[in-house]
Amino acid sequence: MTELEQLSGLFRQLGANPDQATTMAAQMLKRADQLAVDRGMDRTMALKYLIELITKGRSGEAPSTRIPPSSGA
Question: How many angstroms separate the CA atoms of 71 and 61, rounded?
């Protein structure tokens, strides 16, 4: 199962219809790639951060971790 399929499944579990879930998953993967490049962080860690942000945000919780500052800041 690909990352896209796994994330689409997560978004479907969170209530998105299949088309929305696929779009959201693709956007999240793109954003994880952007964070990895912009912040100089591991792509897996960027994806983990985003998944936590989405799941906690949906339940009204604040994320427990912060995004690392960019190396250029």
Answer: 28
- Which DSSP state fits 17? -
* Interatomic CA distance for residues 11 and 17, integer angstroms: 8
Q: Is 73 helix (H, G, I), strand (E, B) or coil?
A: coil
Domain boundaries, the chain: 3-58
pLDDT in tens, 1-11: 999 999 999 99
Report which residue type is found at 70: S
What are 24's two structure tokens? 């959201």
Task: State how far the Cα of 59 lies from the Cα of 39, in Å rounded to an integer.
Answer: 27
pTM of the model: 0.80
Q: Of 34, 28, 20, which Cα lies nearest the Cα of 53?
A: 28
